[in-house]
Amino acid sequence: MKKILAILLAGMMTATVFAGCGGGGNTESGGSGSDTQSSSDDGGAEVKDANLVDVSVFGDEDNISLKVWAPDKAVSLVKEQIEAFKAAYPEKTFTKIEVVAQGEGDAGTQLMNDASTAADVFSFASDQLNKLVDAKVIAPVAFAKAVTDMNSEACVTAGTLQDTLYAYPETNDNGYYLVYDKTVVSDEQAGKLEDVLAACKEAGKKFIFNCGNGFYGCTFAFTAGVKIDGLEEDGVTQKFTDYDEAEAVKTLQAFSKLMHEYKGTFTSLDNAQVASGFSTGTLGAGVDGSWNTNADQDALKDNFGAAKLPTINVDGTDKQLISLFGYKYIGVNAASQFPAAAQVLAYYLAGETCQQQRAEKLGWGPSNKNVQGMDVVTKSAVQQAIKQQSENACVQVNIAPTFWDPMGNLGNKLVADDTDPDDAAYFSKLLKDTVANVRDEG
Amino acid sequence: MTFVEYKMLNPFQRFAYNFKKVLKSIPKSVGRFFVGIGKAIVKFFTGIGKGFKNYGTTFAKGDWATKLSYLIFGVGDLHKGKYYKGILFFITEVLYILYITLFGWQYISKFGTLGTVQTSMQKVNGIPKQVFGDNSMLILLYSVLTIVITVVVFAIYIANIKDAYKHQVMRENGEKPTSLRHDVKEFLDGKYHITLLSFPVLMIAVFNILPLIFMILIAFTNYDKQHMPPGTLFTWVGMDNFGSLFNLVEGAKKGKTFIELTGWTLLWAVLATFTNYILGMIVALMINKKGIKFKGLWRTLFVIAIAVPQFVSLLLMNQMLQVNGAINVLLTDISHLFGGTETIEIQFLNSTTFMARATVVIVNIWVGIPYTILSMSGILMNIPEDLYESARIDGATPVKTFTAITLPYMIFVTTPQLITTFVGNINNFNVIYLLTGGGPTTQDYYQAGRTDILVTWLFKLSMDTQDYGLAAAIGILVFIVCATISLIVYNNSKSMKDEEAFS
C-alpha cells in the first residue's frame, strides 16, 4: 500500500513539472522552394462587388473549416457577419468557421509563435505588418486591385510592402487625439497647447499626456521634424527623414519648457487615467486613443469635446503636433489549409457592408471610401478629429522593434524634473542618442 | 595566533583579524572549487576510457551471439533464453532506426547549417500560397531531441552488450536466466527506486533538460529580429553574442548596458537580501521578546501582508507612487496642515536613478520582511532555552547573549536560506518589472532602464525586440554567476562544514 501511495506521489510531482509547460512545436515540414513568382504581376483574382467574389475563386476547396481571430469586443458582431458570409455562398459547404477572441496588438506575435494552429483569418494592428511579412507568415491579398480601389489611399499604401499589398484594410482610426472637458477648455482654446494648458491650470485641473510610452512619446520627435521613413534594406533598422537639428532641438526645448512651466498641470500618466480623471473631475483635458473614446464619452457626457492634437509655439510659429497613426488590417495566414476560402472570407470581412456595421455598432472608423462618406462617420466629432489628425501623422507601419523604448525615454526626459529646458546641448545629445538607439547603432 | 593572544586583542583588532581570516580563506576555497571541477572532469574521461576497454574485451571474450549483439540488439539475450529482454532490446533498435529514417534524419542532417532553403511564395490560379522552406528553429529543436534520443539508445546498446555477456557467463557457469515474473517482482523490491523514479526522471528530461539544451544552443546562433523562422533562417555564430556583451568600446551600448546592469543586479541582490534579513530579524526579535503582549496579534498582522499576492501589492505600490498617487496626495495633505500651499508631486519611480533604486529597495523591504519574520520567529523559538539560562547565570549582557548565542545560531540555520534568497533576488523579476518596469528610462542603455536587472533586461530583449540569441547568452551568464556564488558560499558555510554544531 505504501508503495502504491509513493508511486502516486511521484506521479503528482511530475504533474507539477508539466504545469506551465504549454506550447508545442510547429509541425509543417519543409518543402522545396522553387517556382517563386512575383506576386504583384496582376491585380489579383476577379471580384463580383464590394463584398463578394465569384464562387469559382474557391477552386476545388470544399467542406471548408476556418478559424478567425477578432478582438474581444468584436467577436459577436463577427459571428453574425460570418453567418451572412455563409449564406452568400450557398454552393459551398462550411464545416466550421470558428471565431476566437484575440487582441489585435499581439495577433502577429501569436501567429508567428505557431502558424499551424493559428487563425486562418486574423485582425491585427499595422505596426506588426513588416514583422509578419519578414517572417513570411502572411499571404498577400489576392484581390489587390479591388481592395486598392475601394479603400482610402493612405491605408493601402501603408499595407503595401515591396509593391505587394499584404493585408485587407479594416479600419482607419488607430490613433490618438485631444479630448477635453468643454466646461474647462473651449473649442477655440483646444487649437493651441499653450491655451489648453493655461485653461486647465486656471481651472485647477490636470492635463494628461502619456510621454513615457513610445507610442505617444514619438509625437515630440515627429513634431520636431524627426519623422520615420520606413526601414533600411536589412528590414529591421529604422530610417528617419532628414531633419534640421537646430530646429528639432528648439522644438524639443519648447515642449520641455512648456511642461516645466505647467508643472503640476501637465502630467505624464497612463492613458487609463484619462477616463477616470474625467469622471472624478480632476482632469481638464488629455490625449487619448480612439479605443478609449466610449469610456471618455461616458465620463464627460455632454461636455465631451474632441479635436485633433493642438499646435505648439516654437519661436513664434505655431507647429502642429504630429502623431503616430495606425490602421487595422485583416490578414490571411500563409499556412492556411484553405487559402482561397480564407482570402474570400477576409475580403468579405473587410468589405463595405462589414465596415459599415462596425462603424455603426462599434464606432470603428472605416477605411472604405464609401463608408467614410456616410453619416455615421461625417456626423461624429470623434471621427472627424481622428480624420484630421490622420492628415498630420506618421503612419504606424514599418516600425522597428527598437523604436518604442528610446521614444518613451525621450518623452520621459522632456518632462523629467531634473531636465533643464534651456540646456540646448543636452537636448541635442538626447536627440542624437534617441535616433542612434532606435537604429540600434553601437 | 593562539587563543590567549586572540583574547588579548581589543574588539577592533579582533574584527580586523577575523576579516583578514575570511579574506584569506576565499582564494583557498575558490582554488578548491576549481580543483574539484578538474577532478570531476578527469574522472569522467577515465570512466569513458574504461568503458571503451570493456567494450573491446567483451567482444573478444564473447561467443557468436554476444558478438552479434554488437550489431543487432538482443540477439545474445534471445540465444540464452532471456526472451522478453531480448525482444525489448530488438524493438528498441527497430524503433530507433524507424525514428531516424522517417523523422530524425531530415533535421539532424541540417544541424550543421540550420537549414539552407528559404521560404517562398507561390501563386495557384491567383491565390497566393506559401511554400515553406527550412525552419531553423525546428531543425535545432528536433536535432536536440534526436541527439538526446541517440544518447539514450546508445546507453541501451551498451546495456544490451553487457547483458548478453552476463548471460553468456551465467550459462558457462550453468546458471539459468531469471524469469520475467522474477524480474517484475524485483522492480517492486530491490529495484524499487527505479520504478519510482523512472517516470519523474523521464518527464524532467523531456520538459526541463531538453528545452534547457535548446535554449543554451540558441545563445550561439544569430536568432534575432533579422532572422525569424519560418521566413528567414538563422545559423551558428559562435561566441558573437557573448562578444557583444563584453564589448566595451566607446559607444557600444550592449556591452555598457550589460556591465552596468550586472553591477546594479549584484548591488540590488545584496541590498534586497540583507535589508530583509536584518530588518526581519529585528522585528522577529522584538515580537519574540519576553514581556511583549499580544504576540499572536503582531505575527498575524505581518502575515496578513502575505495574504495579498505579491504582484497585486506591487502593482498597487506602482500606482501609489505615481505623481498623482496616494503617497503624493498624502504628502500634499500633510503639508497643507502645516500651512503649505504647493501640491507635492515627487517622481519616485521616474526621475533620478538614486530615487528610483532607493524606492525599489524600500518597497521590497515592505513586501519581503513578513516572510523573514515568519521563518525567524520559528528559528528563535527553537533555540534551546538552557543556553540563555547558563549565559544569564554567567552574567552575560543581553547584547552579549545576542552576539554569542542568537546570531550564530540564526546564521548557522539560515545560511542556505540566505543563499537561495540571494539567488532569488538576482532573478527577482516581479519587484523590478511590476514596480518600475525598468524605469527611469535612459538613452545610455540598449533597451533597458536604470532599475532594470539582468532578468528584466533579458525579458525585454526577448519579448520586445526579439534578440533571442543575446537573451540566451545573458541567461547563461546569469546562471554562471548564481551557481558560482552559491557553491562557494555554501561550501564555506558552517552549516555545510559542521552539520552537527547545534544539535
From TrEMBL, chain A:
<dbReference type="GO" id="GO:0015768">
    <property type="term" value="P:maltose transport"/>
</dbReference>
<dbReference type="GO" id="GO:1901982">
    <property type="term" value="F:maltose binding"/>
</dbReference>
<keyword id="KW-0732">Signal</keyword>
<feature type="signal peptide">
    <location>
        <begin position="1"/>
        <end position="19"/>
    </location>
</feature>
<dbReference type="GO" id="GO:0055052">
    <property type="term" value="C:ATP-binding cassette (ABC) transporter complex, substrate-binding subunit-containing"/>
</dbReference>
<dbReference type="InterPro" id="IPR006059">
    <property type="entry name" value="SBP"/>
</dbReference>
<dbReference type="Pfam" id="PF13416">
    <property type="entry name" value="SBP_bac_8"/>
</dbReference>
<dbReference type="GO" id="GO:0042956">
    <property type="term" value="P:maltodextrin transmembrane transport"/>
</dbReference>
<protein>
    <submittedName>
        <fullName>Extracellular solute-binding protein</fullName>
    </submittedName>
</protein>
<keyword id="KW-0813">Transport</keyword>
<feature type="region of interest" description="Disordered">
    <location>
        <begin position="26"/>
        <end position="45"/>
    </location>
</feature>
<comment type="similarity">
    <text>Belongs to the bacterial solute-binding protein 1 family.</text>
</comment>
TrEMBL record, chain B:
<feature type="transmembrane region" description="Helical">
    <location>
        <begin position="139"/>
        <end position="161"/>
    </location>
</feature>
<dbReference type="InterPro" id="IPR000515">
    <property type="entry name" value="MetI-like"/>
</dbReference>
<dbReference type="GO" id="GO:0042956">
    <property type="term" value="P:maltodextrin transmembrane transport"/>
</dbReference>
<feature type="transmembrane region" description="Helical">
    <location>
        <begin position="354"/>
        <end position="374"/>
    </location>
</feature>
<feature type="transmembrane region" description="Helical">
    <location>
        <begin position="468"/>
        <end position="490"/>
    </location>
</feature>
<keyword id="KW-0813">Transport</keyword>
<keyword id="KW-0762">Sugar transport</keyword>
<comment type="function">
    <text>Part of the ABC transporter complex MalEFGK involved in maltose/maltodextrin import. Probably responsible for the translocation of the substrate across the membrane.</text>
</comment>
<keyword id="KW-1003">Cell membrane</keyword>
<dbReference type="InterPro" id="IPR035906">
    <property type="entry name" value="MetI-like_sf"/>
</dbReference>
<protein>
    <recommendedName>
        <fullName>Maltose/maltodextrin transport system permease protein</fullName>
    </recommendedName>
</protein>
<keyword id="KW-1133">Transmembrane helix</keyword>
<keyword id="KW-0472">Membrane</keyword>
<dbReference type="Pfam" id="PF00528">
    <property type="entry name" value="BPD_transp_1"/>
</dbReference>
<keyword id="KW-0812">Transmembrane</keyword>
<dbReference type="GO" id="GO:0015423">
    <property type="term" value="F:ABC-type maltose transporter activity"/>
</dbReference>
<feature type="transmembrane region" description="Helical">
    <location>
        <begin position="300"/>
        <end position="321"/>
    </location>
</feature>
<dbReference type="GO" id="GO:1990060">
    <property type="term" value="C:maltose transport complex"/>
</dbReference>
<feature type="transmembrane region" description="Helical">
    <location>
        <begin position="194"/>
        <end position="220"/>
    </location>
</feature>
<feature type="transmembrane region" description="Helical">
    <location>
        <begin position="266"/>
        <end position="288"/>
    </location>
</feature>
<feature type="domain" description="ABC transmembrane type-1">
    <location>
        <begin position="262"/>
        <end position="489"/>
    </location>
</feature>
<comment type="similarity">
    <text>Belongs to the binding-protein-dependent transport system permease family. MalFG subfamily.</text>
</comment>
